[in-house]
Each structure stands twice: as C-alpha cells, then as structure tokens.
Design goal:
The complex is a heterotrimer of chains A (about 190), B (about 200) and C (about 190).
Chain A (H helix, E strand, L loop, with lengths): L1 H48 L12 E5 L2 E9 L5 E12 L2 E10 L4 E7 L11 H4 L32 H28 L2
Antiparallel strand pairs in A: 1-2, 2-3, 3-4, 4-5
Chain B lengths: L1 H10 L14 H6 L4 H24 L9 H23 L1 H7 L10 H9 L6 H31 L1 E2 L8 E2 H4 L12 H17 L4
Chain C lengths: L1 H12 L10 H6 L4 H30 L8 H23 L1 H7 L2 H4 L4 H12 L4 H29 L11 H15 L7
Helix pairs in contact in C: 1-8, 3-4, 3-7, 3-8, 4-5, 7-8, 8-9
Classes of the chains: A alpha+beta (about 190), B mainly alpha (about 200), C mainly alpha (about 190).
Chain lengths: ~190, ~200, ~190
Amino acid sequence: MREMISMIVVLTCLTAVSGGLLAAVKSGTELRIEEQVLKFQKAPAIADILPDVTNDPIAERFPVTADGIELQVFPGKLADGSKAVVFETKGKGGYGGDVGLMTGFNLSTDKIIAARVTTHAETPGLGARAKDDPAFVSQFSGKSTADNLALKNQGGAIDAMSGATVTSVAVSRAALEAQDLYKKLKPEIEKQIQ
Amino acid sequence: MAQSLAKEFTKGLWAEIPPFRLVLGLCPVLAVTKTVENGIGMGMATTFVLVFSNLLVSMLRNVIPAKVRIACYIVIIATFVTIVELVMQAFTYPLFLKLGIFIPLIVVNCIVLGRAEAFASKNNPIMAIADGLGIGIGFTLSLSVLGAVREFLGAGTITIWGGTPVFDMATVSSSFQPFSFMVEAPGAFVGLGLLLAIMNLIPSK
Amino acid sequence: MAYFELAIGCILINNILLAQFLGCCPFLGTSKKMETAVGMAMAVVFVMSMAGIITWVVDTYLLKGLDVEYLRTVSFILVIASLVQFVEMFLKKSMPALYAGLGIFLPLITTNCAVMGACLLNISNEYTFVTATAASFFYALGFGLALILFAGVRERVNLARVPKPLQDTSIGLVTAGIIALSFTAFKGMV
C-alpha cells in the first residue's frame, strides 16, 4: 500500500513540476517565437510579392474580421500610390499536409499582384518546386477576382506542375480561398487600411 | 575523484561514442546529417537534454520508486526536450524548421533513456553530468563527421552555422559534380555503414 | 480512392523507415532473424495504429482545446508508454500465446521512434481522425514491410564472406541503404 502511494505521489509531483516549468518557459518565449515566425516564414514571401513598397507591411499588420473569419492582413503602399494587401491562406490536400500560400491583391485593380508559397511539406524536387521555382505560382500574377484559379483539368486557367499534381491542386485551393476571402473581406479591409 | 570524473567524461568521446561504439540513437544520425550545421544543432540539443535529464535522474535516484522509474525518467526527459523545443523556436528558428520532428523525437532517442537507466540512476550528480556531457559531445562529433562527409560529397559544401557555407567546392573547381546520392536517404545508411567499418578498423581499448 | 494514394504514400513513397529514418534502432536490432523481424512488425502494427488514434484524440480535444500544444511531446510519449504497458498487461492475461510470441519487443516499442514519429506526423500533416487512423496503420505496414524485406536480405548477407570491419552492423547499414535506394524509385508515382 505504502509503495503504491509513493509511486502515485512521486509521479504526480513530477508531472506537476514539469507542467509548471514548461508553462513558465512557454510564456517567456511566446513573444519571441511569434516574431521569429513572422520574420522567417512570412517576411520573405511578402518581400517577394511587394518588392517596391514604401511602408513596412509587417509592422503595420492588422487583423480583419468578417463573416466569422479572422485574417491577419499585411498592407502595402505601392510606388504609384495605390494600396495592396497580402495575406496567407492554406490549401488542403498537399502531399505532406497543407500548403501555405501568401497572396497579394491590389486594392485599386482587384487583381492579384503575386502569390508565393510559404510553408509546405512536399516532396523535394517535385512538389517542393512550388516554393523554390516561381514559374508555377507566377501564373497567379495579374489574375483578377473573376478568373477561375482552379487547375486546367478542373476547368480553370492554371497549368499544374508536371509530376506534382497533388501539390498543384493544394496550391490552387489556397489561391481560390484567397480570392474568396478577398472578395468577402474587401469592404472591411478598406475601412481599416490607412 | 578528478581522475574518475575525467574518465567518465572522455569515455563518451571515444570508447563509448554513440552511435559507433555505443550503438544507440541511430534515427537522428541518419536523418539530420545532410549538413554539418544540422548535425551540430541536433548534437547540441541532445547534449542539453542528456546533461539535464542525467542530472535530475541522479538527484532523484533515491526518491523514484523502482517500479515507475521508466515513467518518471520519461517525464523528466520529455520536459527538457520541450524546453529545448521552445528555446530553439525562439532563438534559432531556421534550424528548428530544418530539424523538424526530430527535436521532439529526442525524447525517444535511446541514448538519453539508456544513460538515465544505465548510469545516472546509479551515480552521483557530478558523475552524471560528466557522463551526459561526454556522451553528448561525442554524439555531436559523430553527427558532425557524418554530416561533413554527406554534405561534402553530396553537395560540395560545408555549412557550419548560420546557413551559408564556409566552403563550397563550386568556387574551387567548376567541374566538381556533387554525388547527390549522399544527401538522400540511401546515402545516409551507406555513409554511416562505411564510417562504422572504418571505425572498426581501429581497435577499441 | 484517396485512401489508396495515402497507402501508397505511407507504405512506399514516404516509407517511415527507409525514407523518413524513423525506427532504425529496432530495425537493426531485430532484423537478424526472420522470426524476430515478423514478431516486431506485428507488435508495431498493433501499437502504432492504436497510438495514432489515441494521440490524435488527445491532441485535438485536450491539447488544442486547452491551448497547451507545447505539452505535445510530454503527453504523446506518456500516452505511448502507458499504451504499451496496458497492451502488455492485457495480452499477458487474455492472449498469453501472442504475448509470449512478441516477447521483449513489446516494451521496446515505447522507445521506437517510428511510433512517436508517426503520431507526430499525423499532427504536422493536419490529418482528420479517419485519415490519421489510416495513416498510422499504413505507416506501420510500411515499417513491417521494410523490416521483413531487410531481415530476408540480412539473413543471406550474414552467411556470405564479409570483410571483418564491415561485418554485422556495418554491412547491415549498407544493405539498408541499397534497399532505401530501391524505394526511391517510387517517388513521383502519384
């Protein structure tokens, strides 16, 4: 009996201390981790999409809520004075899970400026080309909100990458969602953007 | 005392170096040795966990009941692995992404549990730290050597820290063709096997 | 049909052992003889499938629900360790023949990176419950397949005249590398 009690006590104390210690470390590093995610995952894509902005899209980011969806939006002021927004969507069904896509829209023309893949777990040399080789995602540049961003074999306007159909589908899903969200949230974005 | 301390520390660097002499901890050795940098990063993370879990297991060795010792060791090890995870996310984010799921997998790295059971539970804390440090550094060395072989042959570069190579064959000789087999999965197995064979040529004391 | 693609992915293309390097320690340890390899393979299929289900549930309802995702590593390994413990006790009482057959491999599964790895992969791939269950099972099948293939080759290799420094583990690793090489042929299949 005594043995059983000591086993339970030791395990419980250990687990409690462990939990407390981890919670402390977690709250200590939380802010820094968020900064790192922004810096390494999102910033390169944003810089690629909006190379000539006169502001700092990351510093000026703001959340937009509409229809029960909350989105973090990165605003950009283009060289010709027009405004742009960049945000991330996830395309389901990639080989290794969701494929993250950052899409930039020009608020004056309602057209896609560019799209870049942020996160993925696709096969190197095949699906991973979506991120490393911009040839595929450059198809999204210049498309308007009326264009069909599905793959050609699904009635849309986008060519899939050869040997990487699954990844291509995931990316086009992300683009379609970006298009959809942009249409839904545009009024809200225009209200909040400076 | 100092002599046996030194002995515990140095055995991890040669006589019981993982994974060559102490055949444990193979998964990360194969998976993260595409570059020297990843090998060093993984080695340091594992060393951190080894040292602290060894220390704690040793400090609590008279308190932990024998029947639940494995469960207790696992909780202790998992706690330190999570701390390493969070710290790496906060301070070395690109390396964290590259090492991926192998960071939480340190918790099932047979080396850590093995040392806790075989050594830390039976020795005082100072010895336990020496053991952890020695084995951890030895592991980091093995990871770096295999990483260097695979990276050099497979990509022609050597990357030690920060993502940019300190040495690139492309700048030395433009006719160098990297043997990309080495950075893929099969190359890891073969590379480790051959390195192990070379180690076997050297007699162990 | 998507499950067929998932199966091909988990068993052949992204084989958890030969492509993702998870589960190497038991791979080299239990593959010297075919019987031990088969025993380990069965034990892993059993535990990995169940662990995949339970850890998914824990992650979705407990960890995400209470917003404590950083406790994933700790909770997953505790789930796996407890699961193995329960499975051992259960088999000992109700299926002693199977228990005796699996022998020492059952407790060893706790430290099998493949089991923990598969559970973590289900989460990082953001699978649904059904997909996670299927994936865990398929990953386990892939592990078993690689293990049995390897044991078959290894039994023959150990009978051949291998130079002394290469004997045992060393030639085992090189052999594993060649099998891994043959599996890379599956890339780009889907």
